[in-house]
């Protein structure tokens, strides 16, 4: 039902079905949480529920305000700010990300993976439909720059694996929103690659029961895949996420506005800062085994198959996006 609600919201052609699908996706996310988490972290659950209700009522109110503004040919800047802030609250973006941190720290593995990936898609598409009615996006661009810089700085000072991934998710949401300015296929391709890389990394992490940076010493056959997925999340060349980010930047740089150039600068700075976080995990998980990995003649064939699967999936998603652009 959760996936059905997400698909219903994404495929809706008007405001009301999109809003209903968005709310149902949040409602059906709660049963995905395991009972032990809901009993031990009641305050986090209630905080998430309260903010979801508040943001839902705010979005509903903003829809009525938008209808009123259109009828009287009034400015929609206030409606834009209201809608964006309520959607930011629902997605756990700054400054409404405290509930996101609390819930993410205590969720079970499966629910955490859903929260980092699929949970945000309906809100992002709803926001894209909002963009289609606007001509002045300087306010949104300014918030994107703040999100990127804040997420990268907070990620550097984070020593918890989950906190680092949460801030990484915030940074990738900003990239996703930038891609939504130009093409739905570009957004789907970017988010598909992010989803694939995140899931591969997280499943390997849970497989080895890793909790902290210093504990991420893996066996030879898992180390390469973990490093590859982290490098892809970091946007390192020649992996697929690097080319997607370059494509987004190339679209942004086609504009001559100063705000667009500032957004590009913020994107590059934040990605460079976040690269330090990704590389710290990468080196801690592979440096101990690097010699034996490259000189071991009995490397498992499944490692090669997994590597080909990750790269092929990313390249196919890029090809699909480029075909429909």
What are the SSEs and their pairings?
Layout: H1 2-10, H2 15-27, H3 35-40, H4 42-71, H5 77-91, H6 98-106, H7 109-116, H8 121-131, H9 138-156, H10 161-180, H11 184-207, H12 220-234, H13 240-252, H14 258-286, H15 290-295, H16 301-324
Helix pairs in contact: 1-2, 1-8, 2-4, 2-8, 4-5, 4-6, 5-8, 8-10, 9-10, 9-14, 10-11, 10-14, 11-12, 11-13, 11-16, 12-14, 12-16
Summarize the structure.
The chain is built from 16 helices and no strands. With 325 residues, it is mostly helical.
How would you describe this structure in keywords?
single chain; 325 residues; mainly alpha; 2 domains
Structural write-up:
The protein is mainly alpha-helical and 325 residues long. It folds into two domains: 136 residues, no CATH class; 189 residues, no CATH class. The chain is 77% helix and 0% strand. Helix 11 runs antiparallel to helix 12. One of its GO terms (cellular component) is mitochondrial inner membrane. Its EC number is 7.1.1.2.
Unreliable stretches, pLDDT < 50, 5 or more residues? 210-217, 288-307
User: How large is the count of helical segments?
Assistant: 16
Secondary-structure element order, as H and E? HHHHHHHHHHHHHHHH
Structural class call reads mainly alpha
Global morphology: globular
Pfam families: Proton_antipo_M
Membrane topology: Multi-pass membrane protein
Keywords: Electron transport, Membrane, Mitochondrion, Mitochondrion inner membrane, NAD, Respiratory chain, Translocase, Transmembrane, Transmembrane helix, Transport, Ubiquinone
Subcellular location: Mitochondrion inner membrane
